[in-house]
Amino acid sequence: MTLPTRSRILGLGATVPEQKLTNDDLAKMVDTNDEWIVTRTGIRERRIMREDEKLSVMTADACRKAVANSGLTIDDIDVLIVCTYTPERLCPSAACETQGELGMGTKPAFDINAACSGFMYGLQVADSMVRAGVYRHVLVVGAEAQSRYVDYTDRGTCILFGDGAGAVVVGPSDDGTETGVLSILLGADARGNELITIRNACPGLGEKSPYKDTPPYIAMNGREVYKFAVRAVGEVLDNVLAQAGLTRDEVDLLIPHQANIRIIEAAAERLGLEKDRVVVNIERYGNTAAASIPLTLEEAATTGRLKSGMLAALVGFGGGFTYGACLIRW
Ligand code: UT7
Question: Would you say residue 1 lies in a domain?
Answer without folding.
Answer: no
